Amino acid sequence: MTTRQPGGGAVPRRKGPRPKHVPQRMCVACRGHDAKRGLYRIVRDSGGEVVFDPTGKRDGRGAYLCDNPACWERALAGGILARALKTDIDARTAADLRQFAQTLPPSKAGATRDGAEE
Predict the structure, then answer these.
(1) Is 52 helix (H, G, I), strand (E, B) or coil?
(2) Residue 26 CB: number of other CB atoms within 10 A?
(3) Contact 36, 27 (CB under 8 A)
(4) Rounded-to-integer distance, Cα 8 and Cα 71, Å
(5) What pTM did the predictor assign?
(6) Residue 33 in contact with residue 26, Cβ under 8 Å?
(7) Number of DSSP helices (H) and strands (E) in the chain, helices first
(8) Do 57 and 45 form a contact (C-beta atoms < 8 A)?
(9) Disulfide engineering: 29 pairs with which of 11, 20, 68, 74, CB 3.0-4.6 Å?
(10) For residue 87, which of 79, 99, 77 has the smallest C-alpha distance?
(11) How confident is the model over 18-37, as pLDDT tens digits?
């Protein structure tokens, strides 16, 4: 089966399954785009608590960070994360998030976003 183009030419339809949609999100610190599951979600819940969201489905206002520890430090120290979540982040919560960032596995993608060579 074919479809018609506005110019009158016929274009064959693609066969096979449609490609799977992969949601994209942006790191609030480096502004790099990646798949939603490739970034880490930080959420401010209805009680005002700021926590890491491992499922990516927790209710509340969310912001995404990549796996680069420098991005986490920039987001916490520069107030980028607080601005994205529209709340103040206390020292204890910031320390917890920094500690979590130190446990992240190193990746090549995170190292190249800063312009550092592999």
Answers:
(1) strand
(2) 14
(3) no
(4) 51
(5) 0.75
(6) yes
(7) 4, 7
(8) no
(9) 74
(10) 79
(11) 899 999 999 999 999 999 99
